Amino acid sequence: MASSRSAELKTAPLLAGARRAEPLVWASAGAVVLALLLLAAVLLLLASNSFRYFWPQPLVYLESDQLGPSGSLGIVLGRDTGRRAQNAQLLLLRGAEEFFQSPIIWLDEDRIRSRQQPKDAFAVERADRGMVFGFIEALTVIGEQRVLSNGSPSQVLNAVQNAREEVSRLSIETREASFYSIRLANGQLVDLPLADVVSVHLPNSMNRVEKLNHFAAGVWRFLSEAPRQTNVQGGVLPAIVGTVTLVLLMAIIVAPLGVLAAVYLSEYAQSGILTRLVRIAVNNLAGVPSIVYGVFGLGFFVYAVGGSIDSVFFADKLPAPTLGTPGLLWAALTMAILTLPVVIVATEEGLARVPKNLREGSLALGATRAETLWRVVLPSAAPAVLTGLILAIARATGEVAPLILVGVAKYAPGLPVSGEFPFVHFDRQFMHLGFYIYDLGFQSPQIDTVEGLVYATALLLVGIVLLLNVAAVVLRGRLREAFAGEEIFR
Amino acid sequence: MSRYSINVRALKRAPSRGRDPGVSLRVEDLNLSYTRSQSDALHDISLAIPSRQVTAFIGPSGCGKSSLLRCFNRMNELIEGCTVTGRVWLDNEDIYAPQVDVAALRRRVGMVFQNPNPFPKSVYENVAFGLRIQGQNKKRILDEEIEKALRAAALWDEVKDRMDANALTLSGGQQQRLVIARAIAVQPEVLLLDEPASALDPISTLRIEELIYELKTRYTIVIVTHNMQQAARVSDMTAFMNLGRLVEFGETDTLFTNPRESQTEDYITGRYG
User: Fold this and answer.
1) CB proximity B134 to A under 8 Å
2) B220-258 burial: b if 16+ Cβ within 10 Å, else e
3) Interchain contact A380–B (C-beta under 8 A)
4) I need a labelling partner for A351 at 20 to 30 A (CA). Which of A310, A411, B34, B243 fits?
């Protein structure tokens, strides 16, 4: 058998090898394509839905048997073909939640009598209680009525925006006498406070540039403002700050700890059964469900360590806990333990890859083992350490489950970092993008109205992970240049 | 920093220094074994290496010549399960005595390896390494010592304008001379060269050999080589080893022209398998 096969090989044409390898090439290339397609699909889903959330959507005036004599004005959030009902339905966001039973309504498509996009329909985003759609008819600034009846929609828009600017400069008491009168789709004319207006626009008569401005302003508010109305509106700045602070703090804790542990395991520990067991245990720790770390963090850090600190240093404040309660420090420590195995494994591999002859060269010059480690081995392994940190950061940024137990809050009144001493508030609870997504997407009573916000937050989280990683990759590139043993380290 | 201030720290000089003025390293009944392989790697080696001369170790692969060389700066200790018995005297001090500081020993006995192994740092920092280890961080002194070492290694003219370049950008031959400069910057007494030219091209090899010839006025040099012509060209004394034993040790001219042992003759005439 063996001899006949070797005879075959001898007579095989030269290209046969390449042809035999082709299925493998196809399979591996296919795997890459599939992986990239899946990633692209996720990103596209996030990006397109986020875009829809910020880009001005047309205001549609619908008349339907379901609505009685008057129609309804709003944004079409989605279309459902027979999942919730037999017929296709439209999901309309009509806003003004205090005047309607619900800010959203499902309308049977075949019962819709007419559909139009009125040029003079306004969309008003309010600081409180969501959107209002309607036709602005009058404006009262500090008790004084301003006539708008003859103006074109864009003139009215200007007047409202100017009035809003004026009002925002007023004191709180005088603000109350300023309001705009808006006619809702059901014919009701309501007076609403001007001070409550976040933005106002005419979605159906905006040109591209205006839409882009509106889009940019919306994105900016999303990134730079605190959430309002139990998070269903406003921005996510506290969550961004919380996420980044947590991850950086975690990196500061995990880097030295992981590197030292890896140094001991790979440089000093005798290679025996015990070391091998420790190594296996460390590798397996990476597979422990993150919620387990959360429970550990709550039991050990928050209650045991935090509680003990309280009883020793803050005994006068008890029973109110000072550090014995979930907070930034405990969350960062928990995340550090969670990501420790990644850093240890990567560092150990990096140390093992430092060529033996570099160590020998250093030792032969009279350096001790510690000097060799510090001056030659660790700098050469630094890129590998950073690779471990990159993986750790990526994992920690996306992790939510343990945080629920050890410090994340649905809404935190203060940021975890501030300009006042001690600048980083280790005891504070913080907001986190991942938890924000979970809370908004799965705990909020009206998911349909916040869906766009959830997608935008998810995209932002991906962006932050990307940004942190790029920073670390750039740093690693610098280090590699500095220790340019190309054939060794690349 | 003079070489004595370095050395005195751990290796106390015996009062009898100078009793044997011509000998730098003396080996007595040295045996070396690795636990992994059952057989001994070195058997009952005894020889005296003259100071400020070049001594070459030749022999077939696996004969133990590198192991013997690594006994002189105790590099064998890095290999797990390596046991050495017997004595090695460096200027009448037993380097295997229990109180010896191995790091201090290695400052007195420098070593250059088969493959150039500069650190992934600048040319300057490579040569400065040994000095910095000794706590020398004054720029003026470092500059001076580094230039001296690089000149001694015949590399100064080639690298004086690129001291900040990464050492790995140098050619193989330059790297090997840099490593020699790095070794002599700490002013050792003995320089161990483990096949220093085997990874180099003929021209670089020639430069290394010229360098060895110049360096022997200041240092005791022990060189392991596969290349008998090289041994004949550069060395004053030659030791022929086979199967972990020292077969013959004598002046190079005698050993190559008129070997005592038939094994030696077989090897140098190429009859050895």
Assistant:
1) yes
2) bbbbbbebbebbbbbbebbbbbbbbbbbbbbebeebbee
3) yes
4) B34
